[in-house]
Design a protein that fits this description.
mainly beta, three-stranded antiparallel sheet, 5 strands, 35% strand, elongated
């Protein structure tokens, strides 16, 4: 049986659900572009730029 690396990706608990991995080192503050599916992102600090089919590209607003 192949081994999985699930613990390196997400944490799952018996009650059900998925949450962020405590070892996630992503620098979310430096993300400059976001992609929404079916609708633009609804994140503070991002503004809609362009639509490509069902994808909506948003960019972080400059201060």
């Amino acid at each position: 049986m192949p081994s999985t690396k699930l613990n390196e990706r997400r944490q799952i608990w018996i009650g059900g659900g998925v949450n962020k991995n405590s070892r996630d080192e992503t620098d979310y503050g430096n993300i400059q572009i976001g992609i929404g599916v079916g609708e633009p992102l609804k994140l503070e600090g991002f503004e809609f730029v362009e639509k490509y089919g069902t994808l909506y590209v948003s960019e972080r607003m400059k201060p």
